[in-house]
Structures are given as C-alpha cells and as structure tokens.
Design brief:
Layout (H helix, E strand, L loop, with lengths): L3 E3 L2 E3 L3 E3 L8 H9 L4 E3 L16 E4 L2 E4 L12 H7 L6 E5 L4 H13 L4 E5 L10 H4 L2 H14 L5 E5 L6 H10 L4 E4 L3 E5 L1 E2 L4 E2 L5 E5 L4 H14 L4 E4 L5 H10 L3 E4 L2 H5 L3 H15 L5 H4 L6
Parallel strand pairs: 3-4, 3-16, 4-7, 7-8, 8-9, 9-10, 10-15, 15-16
Antiparallel strand pairs: 1-2, 5-6, 6-14, 11-14, 12-13
Helix pairs in contact: 3-5, 5-6, 6-7, 7-8, 8-10
Bound molecules: flavin mononucleotide.
Amino acid sequence: MMGVKLCNVRLGNPTILSSGILSMNVDVLKEVVKNGAGAVTLKSTGIEPREGHHNPKVLVWEHGLVNCYGLTNQGIKNMDSEWEELKNLQAPVIASIFGANIEEFAEVAKYMAKKNASMIEVNVSCPNTKEHGMAFGLNKELCYDVIKEVKKVSGDVPVIAKLTPQALNIAEVAKTCEEAGADAISAINTLGPGMFINIDVAKPILSNKTGGLSGPAIKPIAVRCIYDIYKEVKIPIIGIGGVTYGKDAVELMMAGATAVGIGSAVYYRGIGVFKKVCDEIEGWLEKSNFSSLKEVIGAAHE
Ligand SMILES: Cc1cc2nc3c(=O)[nH]c(=O)nc-3n(C[C@H](O)[C@H](O)[C@H](O)COP(=O)(O)O)c2cc1C
C-alpha cells in the first residue's frame, strides 16, 4: 500500500532521507533504513575533499534549522570504501553531487554511475557556498547544460535535478531540466542565507554568519514550489521541505510530490521519524476518501 515507483526505482514507502542530514557513515545509514526510510540520499559529494565551515554550523530553533555546512564532504577520491559497504544497504541509494563547473559535475556523476548508485541527484541549489551552489540553480540555461552533461555520463541511472526555491520561476527551471533529460525533480533545497544574532554578545551565531533555512518554516514555500512544478513537468517530483509529520507528507504529495524527503525532522523526532511518518500517512489514508497513495499525488490540482 505504501510502495512507490520513482523513475525505474522501487521504494518500499515514499519517505527518503534528504541529502546532508546525517553523516556518510554507512552504519548510520543502515539505521535509517532499519527505521523505515524508503531510500537514502548521500551527502553532496564533489571531486576533492572539502572541510566546509567550522562550528557552530547548525542552529536548531523552534521553526526550523539554519545550517552553514558549506558542502563538507570527503570527495569521490576517498569514497570507494563507502560504496563497498553501501552495496548491502536494503534500500535504494541516491548519490548527491555538486561541482564548480559543468566538467566537475560530469566527472562526479560518472563516478557515481560506475558505483551503481540507484539515482543521481544533482545539487544545483546550495545557498552556503560562493562557487558551487545556487548560482547554477538560479540560471535555467546553466541548469540545462549541467543536466545535459550529467545525463551523457550516467547511463541508465536516473538523474534528479535538485532545485532552489530562490529561482525567479522554479517551474520554468524544472521544465528546462526536464528538456535537458532530467528523470525527476527534487524541490526544495534550503532557503537563504539567513542569520541569527546572539544578543548577549552582539555577534552572528553561525561561524559563517549566515546559513540555509530548513524545517517547518519553509514548508509553505516547498508546497507552492511543488504545486507550480507539477503543472509544468511530466517527470516525478521528490517533495522536500518541512516534512515533520505524516500530514506534511500528504500535503506535499497533494501538491504533486511522488515521494518526500525528510531532513530537519530527524533533529526534531529522531531517527525513528521515517516509520512514524509512514504510520501517520497510513492512518490518515484509512480515514480519508482516497483508496491509494497514488491517488493523493497532485490531488490539490483537481
Ligand atoms: C545540516 C544540513 C545539511 C544539508 N546538506 C545538504 C547537502 O549536502 N546537499 C543538499 O542537496 N542538500 C542539503 N541540505 C538540504 C536538505 O537536503 C533539504 O533539502 C532541506 O533541509 C529541506 O528539507 P527539510 O525541511 O526536511 O530539512 C542540508 C540540510 C541541512 C539541515
């Protein structure tokens, strides 16, 4: 009843661990799957290792998180041992990639396809770095070129474009990615940059001063973005942004999402959040007038 098909990939349920939320430690990812995630997305990875920003880099406040990790990752050059262990994971593995230019995106994608990632998510939307992130996602022509090149080297592995809500017209960017060959869209990445100031010392709290906003505060923006994208594209959408309870997942699905990413809610409800959200969706479905989850997708458009 809860199974979904995303491109050619079968998920036991529609919840997916979003990129960057937990470490790349495979034991942690195994726990995520044991706790009910239908798929896991790895931390965005580039060619070279990257330290990112130093602490404090995450701030949890009552409406969401603000983070300035800045694409901390080990680089594909140091990732072979993780892939060895990931082979045994009992759920699809989505590899998230980033690059400073089109050639770098293609090189990382080629590596991930060779490692048999279930899907490749192209992060063109990080608000926390100057040279690798959102600049791509704000420009539909650049997105087209990145996706086109990534598709060329990814073989049969489905390619997902992960978009920023800060594009002037996210639906237009999604349509352009579809035209370039993207097999799915992920929406949305964090919103930002935002800032918190510690008023006792009159200084910004995060080491980088600013960071990307996620969690409940961004859910209405996620819902609107998904709603707009659903009207423009035929490819499936992974809805991300503020999914904390089953009812949030249903809302994103009614806007047009086939599956939902869960990120900040891991901080609020623990690693068991995936099963909790699935149980809540099922409970809601039983009481609703919908006979299947499939019927819920895009229902707010009818
Ligand atoms: C600590 C942290 C690190 C993140 N790192 C990445 C990342 O490496 N790549 C990426 O595409 N998104 C990253 N994100 C964004 C999430 O994948 C997700 O799009 C965003 O948090 C919105 O979902 P949420 O409201 O469920 O948290 C990160 C978010 C957080 C909170």
